[in-house]
Design a protein that fits this description.
Blueprint: H1 3-16, H2 19-28, E1 33-34, H3 35-39, H4 46-58, E2 62-67, E3 70-75, H5 81-108
Antiparallel strand pairs: 1-3, 2-3
């Protein structure tokens, strides 16, 4: 994986590593929301909410738009695709390994477990 892709994946996982940020993502999955709307269900001070939102933005999960004094955030479509791809690749690797292990065990066992009770 190229360094730029690795850095993006690191930023995505870092952004997803905090429960408050995941709650914000869940809320934004319902539609755009202002900073104060995102802060309302969390028991965090506004400066903490703003810092969390900056992490989500650096991670490429959300983007924002400012109209007057109100900053509104929304999810970036397809932002989790890289995480999904990464996880799917690991799953395929482990499935192949387990399939090979299963085949090895079946071959070394003669295909069955005769004599076991």
């Amino acid at each position: 994986m190229p360094d730029s892709q690795q850095a993006r994946l690191d930023a995505l996982f870092h952004a997803l590593s905090d429960g408050s940020r995941r709650r914000m993502i869940d809320q934004l999955s319902q539609g755009p929301a202002s900073v104060s709307e995102l802060a309302r269900p969390l028991e965090l001070a506004m400066p903490s909410v703003v810092k969390h939102l900056a992490v989500l933005e650096r991670g490429g999960l959300v983007n924002s738009e400012k109209q007057g004094r109100v900053r509104t955030f929304q999810l970036v479509p397809g932002a989790l695709a890289q995480v999904e791809t990464w996880a799917a690749e690991r799953e395929r690797t482990w499935r192949r390994r387990f399939d090979r292990l299963e085949a090895f065990l079946a071959a070394s066992d003669g295909g069955g477990r005769e004599g076991s009770a």
